[in-house]
Amino acid sequence: MNENMKVYDAVRTVPKTAQKEIKGGRMAGKTDINPMWRIKALTEQFGMCGIGWKYEILEERLEAVGEQIAAFVKISLYVKSGGVWSDAIPGTGGNMFVTKEKSGLHVSDECFKMALTDAISVSCKALGFGADIYWGTDSTKYDKSNQSSSTEPKTSLSDAQINRAYAIASTKGIDKTAVNDWTSKKYNKQISQLTKAEYDALVTAMESQKNVEKKQKDG
Predict the structure, then answer these.
(1) Which domains are assigned to the chain?
(2) CA distance 165 to 154
(3) pTM over 0.85
(4) pLDDT tens for each residue of 154-181
């Protein structure tokens, strides 16, 4: 076994009991992962929280958009391997604090807790947690017969997906021009022409606090 892939391969597959299809909203049809599965898997791979893995909350903030207010949490996740703590694995998560609904404004008193859960999931992505869900084209032991057709077809992104990417970039201080310059440099195409895998990689990079403008310079 490739030692570099040991953790990735151990946590890439999410058990069916920890998966739930999202029925409504913008994420309809996608898969929600039970957050306790990540806690269990982190503990299995590295040890008890605080001893084998831990996280540090770096920032909690609220941002208003019209009458709605979003909550964001930024963390650093650390895991211990061979008795040595890793460098910080960044993650930023978000959830709604004030949501405008048909009946009026709804306030959530769990917004920071849910944003923290989201941030942990972002950090865990870098270790391969749930990889087979986030990247459906990656080969697994279950789809060897389909490896020859694993190349993802080119697709056009919806306006909602493009606007979501721009919104995430804006929270990092990255403007639309920088995002488009990076996609042109890396993929030789506009953001609207990215495949789903390319789009997901872009969003994950920005959610993980990676600097898009630096990627543009580095190529």
Answers:
(1) 3-139 (3.30.390.80), 151-218 (no CATH)
(2) 18
(3) no
(4) 456 777 788 888 888 888 777 778 888 7
